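Table S2 (text version). Query chain:
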Amino acid sequence: MNLDEAQRKKIAGWIEEGLKLSDIQNRIGSEFGLRLTYMDVRFLVDDLKLVPKDPETPKAPETSLTSTASTAEPKSSPANPNPADAIPAAPGGVSVSVDQLARPGTIASGKVTFSDGNRAEWHFDQTGRLGLLPQQPSYRPPAADLQQFQILLEAELSKMGF
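Corresponding structure-token output:
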């Protein structure tokens, strides 16, 4: 395909504007009168040593529920070798942590601290069932805490691609 220098500069400008290859294909057809396939446009852009820009992904705004959870990774110390135990619950809130390495026989696992200060371990087994193992055997978290735990857990797991 033979393009003159002005046409090449115009295509380079479209790439700089952030146009997608399909948009460039349409513009080449309308402005230059050339009918190209998408693959032809890909090869053309490659031959011109141009790199299309990746679209920016918008960041999701934080919700008020996630602001009560600790989002920073706690640091381990010699006094506290397990960083997940170092996550305190926000006053009146629930905090959730996800283990770096899931417990054996589980897909994902971690710890939760409820608003009353009680802690539990959680896990998802291979069938996708959620298990909750409180430190105190007879402990039952309040219903509001369970709902907040599920919302925070879903948010944490979605960050990890689950």
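Notes on Table S2: The longest helix spans residues 143-159. Helices lie at 5-17, 21-32, 38-47, 64-67, 143-159.
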